[in-house]
Write a structure and sequence with these properties.
Length: 261
């Protein structure tokens, strides 16, 4: 199935959630006022107006996964040997179910040896166990048809996997930061559902402390999912945007989001 990368949305579209995938994770939607949203999936229940973050890639998948079989230049599929956390398959790969694969719409790259430096977007992939021997622990990764291996890979090549930053996002947890800020939803989202995560334009966001009109805010330093005023840019964790309407602490202030996710 081919999904458009940029969608012209109507007001209200940004509040629609679903239990099934309707777009590519990471697709962009722009409303008539220029507000911008990114298609995401929820790794937990998320309340409207709370800052979300990227889910963490399994530590054993970040780098050094062995390429199971040599891949010639020009092919659109590679195979990796999984030696750590089990991988859930893409529903588009198996043809069943609605659960998005762990790395569907994410990225695979070669971090060392033959073909190092290459990166591809993942169209879909198989499941991969962590025991039982090949092929049970072999992960088959398909690229988009137009994308190919440029420099041939060997069984000495080593690879890493990256979740799409909008796959299984969670509420920003200041005591357990897993990745970059992903956006702020305009509607409550059920765990496991797909939704539009706002990254640009006017938004209401949970406020911690006293924010200042016209000043930048950053990810909250004492309340999960909130924003704090940026007193000193050198101390900011992640800039969210600027304040266009002030509300009290624990309420929701109006911001002009400028999230580069």
């Amino acid at each position: 199935m081919a999904f458009p990368a940029i969608i012209q949305g109507r007001f209200g579209d940004e509040k629609v959630t679903s239990s099934t995938k309707k777009n590519r994770i990471g697709a962009r939607m722009v409303l008539a006022d220029g507000s911008e949203f990114v298609y995401a999936s929820a790794g937990e229940a998320i309340t409207a107006g709370k800052v979300t973050m990227q889910a963490q890639t399994s530590a054993g998948h970040i780098k050094d996964l062995v390429v199971y079989a040599a891949a010639a230049a020009g092919v659109s599929q590679i195979k990796l040997t999984n030696v750590t956390t089990a991988v859930v398959a893409s529903s588009s790969y198996t043809g069943t179910g609605t659960t998005i694969g762990d790395y569907e719409d994410g990225y695979v790259f070669i971090n060392d040896n033959a073909g190092e430096g290459q990166m591809w977007s993942i169209k879909n992939h198989s499941a991969a166990a962590t025991s039982g021997g090949n092929p049970d622990d072999t992960m088959v990764i398909n690229f988009y048809d137009t994308d190919k291996v440029s420099t041939a890979l060997t069984t000495s090549s080593e690879a890493g996997l990256i979740k799409n930053p909008q796959n299984s996002v969670e509420v920003w947890d200041l005591s357990d930061i897993d990745g970059i800020v992903a956006g702020v939803p305009r509607a409550d989202v059920t765990s496991g559902y797909y939704f539009w995560n706002q990254v640009k334009g006017a938004a209401t966001v949970l406020t911690n402390g006293s924010v200042v009109l016209g000043k930048n805010v950053m990810t909250g330093s004492s309340t999960d999912g909130s924003v704090d005023v940026v007193a000193d840019d050198s101390s900011a964790e992640f800039i969210i945007g600027g304040v266009i309407g002030v509300a009290a602490t624990t309420e929701y202030s109006a911001l002009w989001l400028n999230i580069s996710a």
